[in-house]
Structure formats: C-alpha cells, structure tokens
Fold this protein.
Amino acid sequence: MKYLVFLIAIVIKPAFSINDLEGKALICSYGKNLTNHEIYLFYKNSYASKYLFLENHNFKIRTNEKRKYYLSKNDLTLKPFKINLEHLTVFDMEFNKTIGKCKIVDNHKIADNFMINHKIKSQNKYNNLIRKNSV
C-alpha cells in the first residue's frame, strides 16, 4: 500500500515545483518582434534577472538583485510579470496585457551563454547602424 501511495504521488506531481526551478532558467523575449531578451536564473527560493543595457555606446549585461518568486498551479509570478506555466507567455500585471514569451532551459550556463551571444549580436548591429548614420 505504501508503494501505491508513493507511485500515485509521483504521477500527480505538478509540472513545476520550487525544487524543480532551482538551477534552471527562463529565457524570455519581449517587444513587437520578440527581439528584446531577459533571462531569469532560479535559485532555491529566489531568482535574479539579467538584461542588456546600453552605456556609452557599449552594451553591458546587467544583473538585478535576487528577488522572491511565487509559484502557483498555473502561474509563476515575477513581479510585475505573471508567466503562464502551460504556454510560457508573459503577462504584465501593471499594463494588463501579454508582452512576451519564454522558454525554460536546464541550467544557468545555457541562459548566460544566450545573453552573451545576444550582447555580441546587439553590439554588432548597433555599431553597423552608427557607421551607416555617420556617413
């Protein structure tokens, strides 16, 4: 009987739990063409986000301080955003609209590498735009 209860508990476990998110990351895309990106790195009870910031014509990756996240059966809340766990869509609670889409990755390194590549591509695109406008 104990084994049956254990097996049932495993089968009905929710898709995400706090333990499942630890060590994982979300890569979220925002904007009209989903070309702006932010990553969310999950720790035991908190997360940190990283995003691109333009300073003196150079893109830098900024990291926000760790914050607490809230997990329910259907949503992951990273204030002011609520992420639907089934579709991984990002809903902005301040402006009451869907603003982006995410994908979950297995570890922080994958997300960090994504941001580094995004930074390089963004810097190259920016540099080319500056060159064209200075001619």
About this structure: Strands lie at 25-30, 36-42, 46-55, 58-63, 67-68, 70-71, 75-78, 81-84, 89-92, 97-105. The longest strand covers residues 46-55. Residues 123 and 131 are 12 Å apart (CA to CA).
